[in-house]
Amino acid sequence: MRKNQCQVFFVGAGPGDPELLTIKGKRCIEQADLVLYAGSLVPVEVVSCAKDGAKVVDSSPMTLEKTHKAILETVKKGGTVARVHTGDPSLFGAIREQMLLLDRDGITYEVIPGVSAAFAAAAAARISYTVPEVSQSLIITRVAGRTKLPPEQALKSLAKHQSAMAIYLSAAHSEQVQAELLAGGYEGSTPVVVAYRVGWPDEIILKTSLEGLSDAVAKAGIKRQAVFLILPGQGREPVRSKLYSGDFTHSYRTQLSEFRKLRNSKSEYRNPKQILIFKCSNDQNTVD
Fold first, then answer.
1. What is the CATH T-level fold of the domain 118-230, as seen in this structure?
2. What is the value of pTM for the model shown?
3. What order do you get walking across the sheet with 204-209 strand by strand?
4. 93, 117 in Cβ contact below 8 A?
5. Ranges in the chain annotated CATH 3.40.1010.10
6. Distance of CA 66 to the CA centre of its chain
7. Within the chain, which residue ranges are assigned CATH 3.30.950.10?
């Protein structure tokens, strides 16, 4: 587990389902001497793979200073730490302030990515954020609460892009979300998915419209731990992606075609030492 003698591993636990924990993340937890996990958001089943003798601590009631102290104590004894965060640590995980303290104290660390709720929710709802010729962007954001937002990042301002959105940490503000997005230009009929505790046993996936968002959330009694997916274009007549279209060629598909022509031609390549190598040019591999 010790890549370059790392002492601390920030592990993305995924949205809740222990089976969505990555293999690398699980290995870090299994080998750690201290497992610090956010118990309010990470099920205990995710860290149940900790080794015998490991110290497993719910960090929910702890402050930044207390968690850092626990990490320091373990590292000074020569141990390793798995700091387990919900979803992916890079999104609303407050890891920056933790990393700054580790940098200050000369402690090495690594970040192990995880499955964020936005992507688990999309999978559970069986939707695609990107819709050819309609929406090719995804905005990940939240409403302002105790954590303030710059004015240009308010939902009403972001709505002008008319892109798909994944709105976190806003379950208690569904009326505000609805009002700002409508004021920003989204149609009331825009499809919305409400994903509550996705990956947990009590998961709820609701499909509604933007104009029905607040009513749907209130009726379901959802007040926390939900992500809202705003999905313009989902109800429109589907446009086929160019990715697998037969009339769309790119370097790899073109050269595969040439290979098949050679294979099916009258020419015979009987010498097993004759190997055809087809390389893709990097500047032609992207697809709209």
1. 3.30.950
2. 0.80
3. 138-142, 164-168, 226-230, 191-196, 204-209
4. no
5. 3-115
6. 28
7. 118-230
Q: What SS3 class is residue 38? A: coil
Which H or E run contains 142?
Answer: strand 138-142
Which residue in 44, 25, 23, 43 sits closest to 83, CA to CA?
25
pLDDT, tens only, 210-251 = 999 999 999 999 999 999 999 998 876 666 666 666 666 666
Residues recorded for the chain: 288
**Mean per-residue pLDDT of the chain:** 87
Distance, CA of 33 to CA of 288 (rounded, Å):
46
Task: Find the mean pLDDT for residues 52-79.
Answer: 96
Q: What amino acid occupies position 140?
A: I
Q: Collapsing DSSP states into helix, strand and coil, what is residue 40?
A: coil
- Nearest-10 crossing angle of helices 213-220, 174-184: 170
Q: What CATH code is assigned to 3-115?
A: 3.40.1010.10
What are 230's strand-pairing partners? 165, 192
Phi, psi of 166 (to 5 degrees): -120, 115
Answer yes or no: is pLDDT of 282 > 80.
no
Q: What are the residue ranges of helices labelled H in the chain?
A: 23-31, 64-76, 95-104, 117-125, 155-158, 174-184, 213-220, 251-264
